[in-house]
């Protein structure tokens, strides 16, 4: 239970300091969180705040902390901030799901020179991206894109607190991205319609009439930025292909990539059937890329059912080991 104790301790420090700064400076809780993060990273608190914050922030300067301790505590603080500042449209990937995505990335047979590069086009506060990076046995380069300035600042704060190097870009993920091709894309797809119909027309999966689905566009955009043979892991709505009535998304994927697997996340994670999600695993076309003899298909049990989950993870591991495509 030591990790949980550390996470609780760190969350309390972040929460109290963010709330204090929010009140003192008449800023939002999330802006206070960003400012508290800068004090922690710089190990310096303004003289006027030392009396109130030095002891509060002390847990970050005492003893050894893991990146996961910090990530989880920061995630809890961001969640509280999103609930209290009316930004409910931003959702943080559930911790168990983020860790599962990290597990899948670890199973990928990446053959790269130097550090693998991992891209998130909806990076938000960088919770999913850093959760994946923290699980890799080797160093990797994380790259994130988000149009929201506050989210980019939260992502930067999160990375700095964990001492994780990220390249973060504040821009529309559907505009021209000056990013070198990457090895892996991991994205918790923002579900909805993209408002800019003119920009959407540049995508093969855009709707014939009206607004296009942003999550469809983001799959295409990420595949564009994968290296040949690179992998895409997407948290998708279960009805992704059902809503693709004109089959443009499916046709694009069939042309540009290979579907390796579809893993349905536990229904217990979601309040309604409409909110249910799955993980779609793709590989971009390239030299040596082949369609697997059998796609990886599974309905994941509850993450709290350790025995059943262990069995499924073992089956997933065996699939990765046996498939000649990999």
Produce a short descriptive summary.
The protein is an alpha/beta fold. The protein has helices at residues 2-25, 29-42, 47-57, 67-84, 95-107, 127-135, 149-162, 197-200, 214-224, 248-256, 306-322; strands spanning 117-120, 141-146, 166-170, 182-188, 193-194, 212-213, 226-237, 257-264, 277-284, 296-299.
The low-pLDDT segments are none
Shape: globular
How many individual helices?
11
For the residues shown, what is the average pLDDT? 93
Strand order of the largest sheet: 3-2-1-4-7-9-8-10
- The CATH homologous superfamily of the largest domain is named Vaccinia Virus protein VP39
| Main sheet attributes: strand count, strand direction, barrel closure | 8 strands, mixed
In what range is the share of β-strand residues? 15-25%
Helix content: 40-55%
What count of domains describes the coordinates?
Answer: 2
Give the C-level CATH assignment of the largest domain: Alpha Beta
Compressed to H and E, one letter per element, the order equals HHHHHEHEHEEEHEHEHEEEH
> What oligomeric arrangement do these chains adopt?
single chain
- State Rg: 20 Å
Give the CATH topology of the largest domain. Rossmann fold
What is the CATH architecture assignment of the largest domain?
3-Layer(aba) Sandwich
Q: Structural class, judged by helices and strands?
A: alpha/beta
Distance linking N and C termini: 37 Å
Report on this model:
44% of the residues lie in helices and 18% in strands. Strand 2, helix 7 (149-162) and strand 3 (166-170) form a beta-alpha-beta unit. It has helices at 2-25, 29-42, 47-57, 67-84, 95-107, 127-135, 149-162, 197-200, 214-224, 248-256, 306-322, and strands at 117-120, 141-146, 166-170, 182-188, 193-194, 212-213, 226-237, 257-264, 277-284, 296-299. Helix 1 (2-25) packs across helix 4 and helix 4 runs antiparallel to helix 7. The strands form two sheets. It has an eight-stranded mixed sheet, sandwiched between helices. A two-stranded antiparallel ribbon has the order 5-6. It starts with a helix and ends with a helix. It has two domains: 2-84, DNA polymerase, domain 1, CATH 1.10.150.470; 95-322, Vaccinia Virus protein VP39 (Rossmann fold). It has 326 residues and is of the alpha/beta class.
């Amino acid at each position: 239970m030591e990790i949980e104790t550390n996470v609780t301790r760190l969350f309390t420090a972040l929460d109290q300091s963010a709330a204090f700064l929010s009140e003192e400076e008449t800023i939002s809780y999330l802006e206070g969180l960003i400012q508290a993060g800068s004090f922690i990273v710089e190990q310096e608190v303004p003289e006027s705040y030392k009396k109130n914050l030095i002891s509060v922030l002390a847990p970050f300067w005492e003893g050894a902390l893991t990146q996961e301790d910090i990530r989880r505590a920061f995630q809890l603080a961001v969640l509280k901030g999103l609930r209290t500042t009316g930004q409910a449209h931003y959702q943080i990937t559930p911790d168990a799901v983020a860790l599962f995505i990290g597990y899948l990335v670890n199973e990928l047979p990446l053959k790269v020179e130097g550090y693998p590069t991992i891209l998130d086009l909806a990076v938000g506060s960088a919770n999913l991206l850093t959760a994946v990076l923290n699980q890799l046995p080797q160093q990797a380069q994380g790259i994130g894109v988000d149009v929201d300035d506050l989210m980019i600042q939260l992502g930067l704060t999160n990375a700095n607190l964990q001492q994780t190097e990220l390249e973060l870009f504040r821009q529309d993920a559907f505009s021209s991205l000056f990013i070198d091709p990457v090895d892996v894309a991991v994205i918790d797809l923002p579900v909805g319609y993209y408002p800019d119909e003119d920009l959407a027309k540049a995508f093969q999966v855009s709707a014939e009439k009206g607004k296009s689905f942003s999550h469809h566009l983001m799959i295409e955009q990420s595949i564009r930025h994968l290296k040949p043979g690179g992998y895409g892991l997407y948290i998708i709505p279960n009805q992704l292909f059902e809503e693709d009535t004109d089959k443009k998304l499916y046709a694009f994927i069939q042309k540009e990539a290979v579907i390796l697997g579809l893993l349905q996340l536990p229904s217990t994670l979601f309040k309604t059937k409409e909110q249910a999600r799955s993980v779609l695993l793709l590989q971009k076309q390239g030299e040596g890329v082949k369609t697997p003899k059998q796609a990886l298909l599974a309905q994941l049990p509850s993450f709290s059912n350790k025995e059943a989950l262990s069995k499924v993870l073992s089956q997933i591991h065996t699939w990765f080991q046996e498939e000649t495509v990999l």
